[in-house]
Design brief:
Number of domains: 1
Amino acid sequence: METFLHGMVLTNLATVFFTSNYRSVPVSYTSDSLYIQDYLPSFPLDLSIGVPYVVDFLIAVSVTCCALSSRVRASNTARAASLEPFQATSTR
């Protein structure tokens, strides 16, 4: 409970000292949309997705894939290093 209280106090203090106005950098693709029917003509719904959301999604997927692949690579290396001493001392 105490940690939650501290978090709420710090969040509200940050809002007081630094304004809570949202700001963004205007770029050319902010208002562009991708229409699903342009790419999948047989799709039954007429959907559009904003380009910034697509860009954010692709960045998040690539960062996640890179993090997971490095984590798997590190765990495979650690597993191989930990198994090596047992294989070296095997007397079969």
